[in-house]
Amino acid sequence: MNLILMRRIRILHSFSVVFLYWQASSSDSDPRYANVDERKRKRMLSNRESARRSRVRKQKQLEDLVNETSALQKDNGLLSEKINIATQRYIEMENANNVLRAQAVELTERLRSLNSVLHIVEEVSGFAVDIPEIPDPLMKPCHLPCPIQPIMASVDMFEC
């Protein structure tokens, strides 16, 4: 059965070749078909050229996207690095602030202790001693008895 199928395919192929040859020779002799064949050939060439231009355009778009991706990844890396540096500086400042807060609490306690000694001296000696009120800088930092000097920031502090 397979052999019969193969013979039929060969016969059909032979018939197709003969038919195409006959059509080509008949279209050469008939001027009506010559214009049709010429238009088909021109259309085929135009389609090939259009497809080639499309492939070139797509390749350029792909290259542009790859370049843009690379640039964005580079920018992303730089931004991540700056964020890490800023985070590190924030942690350092937070630690320094914690130390300063602890020192302020300790100094406030020392001042209270000294004021209590002054109260005892005042009671024992009978002399009036001017004992100032102790402000709590942690609770009301805007009501400190001494003026706060502004802290000036420079642009260099924020550059990475």
From TrEMBL:
Keywords: Coiled coil, DNA-binding, Nucleus, Signal, Transcription, Transcription regulation. Its main location: nucleus. One of its GO terms (molecular function) is protein heterodimerization activity. The keyword Ribonucleoprotein does not apply. Residues 1-27 form the signal peptide. The keyword DNA-binding applies. This is Ocs element-binding factor 1. The lineage of its organism: Eukaryota, Viridiplantae, Streptophyta, Embryophyta, Tracheophyta.
